[in-house]
Amino acid sequence: MARPQQSPLGRHGEAFLEMLSAERGLAKNSLDAYQNDLTDFTGHLTARKETPERVGIDSLRLYVQGLADAGLKPATAARRLSALRQFFRFMVQEGIRSDDPAALLDAPKRGRPLPKLLSETEVDRLLVEARALREEPAEAARLTALLEVLYATGLRVSELVSLRWPPFGDDPRFLVIRGKGGKERLVPLSEPARQAITDYAGWRGDFISGKASPWLFPSRGESGHLTRQRFGQLLKDLAVAAGISPAKVSPHVLRHAFASHLLAHGADLRAVQKMLGHADISTTQIYTHVLEARKQALVRQHHPLAKG
């Protein structure tokens, strides 16, 4: 009589999956992902003639390094490491091992995606198109003010749509912004942005019903002011009219444009950090990577030796 074929995961791996299913109620897709990750690790152990009960930290590090050498995406490698950590934690809890070698593993660094970028020409096209809405002068004035303020300040979209009325403090050259965590910051406002707000002020009443509104960009909706979602949709429509892919345009992309264009023109990184309201300068430094990537792309496209 033929003996039943043993699972490639071994009895401890199968017990771990049973626990995930019974105690955590994971869906089939999630269980399949854990099984695939553990099967891959089991192959590593088999090749080295090792077992989950006795494998050490050096072998685990070799396995994780092999994931990187194989070109596995950082997110996938991180998921496999998470599966290993949970598996070995389970073995300790079940008394199969007295130590947890996976607890000493370093997580693989996840590559940070570079933000989407609009060129200065594309931003100009959006502004031209916004001003060209002659049949809807109130909408044209509001859109122009939104774009000018966002591009001049790099505000988060939630900060932009919730600006108070009147927006200026003691000095009209600056906006006082209350950002994340209630922290206030002073953001300079360009002359075109100040003028756009002044031009829009005469049309502001068109977006108010009933009593006066405390918001710079009021709305008749529940929030009382223009929502992030509505502004995002207005930008998409404007991009189509300007001949720009709508997938390329969003309020956050204009915030990226503000930062990257400032740095391209020689602005100080610390100053840009303060204007964006970033707590950590490493968050702001992503824009220097954007500029470097753009330079490299320009060289590849236009330098005569690059084509060779």
From TrEMBL:
Residues 7-92 form the Core-binding (CB) domain. Keywords: Cell cycle, Cell division, Chromosome partition, Cytoplasm, DNA integration, DNA recombination, DNA-binding. The active site is at R156, K180, H252, R255, H278, Y287. Residues 113-300 form the Tyr recombinase domain. It comes from the Bacteria. Its main location: cytoplasm. SUPFAM superfamilies: DNA breaking-rejoining enzymes (SSF56349). InterPro entries: CB, DNA_brk_join_enz, Integrase-like_cat_sf, Integrase_catalytic, Integrase_recombinase_N, Integrase_SAM-like_N, Recomb_XerD, Tyrosine_recombinase_XerC/XerD. Coiled coil: none annotated. It is found in: Cytoplasm. It holds the Pfam family Phage_integrase. Site-specific tyrosine recombinase, which acts by catalyzing the cutting and rejoining of the recombining DNA molecules. The XerC-XerD complex is essential to convert dimers of the bacterial chromosome into monomers to permit their segregation at cell division. It also contributes to the segregational stability of plasmids. Belongs to the 'phage' integrase family. XerD subfamily. Forms a cyclic heterotetrameric complex composed of two molecules of XerC and two molecules of XerD. This is Tyrosine recombinase XerD.
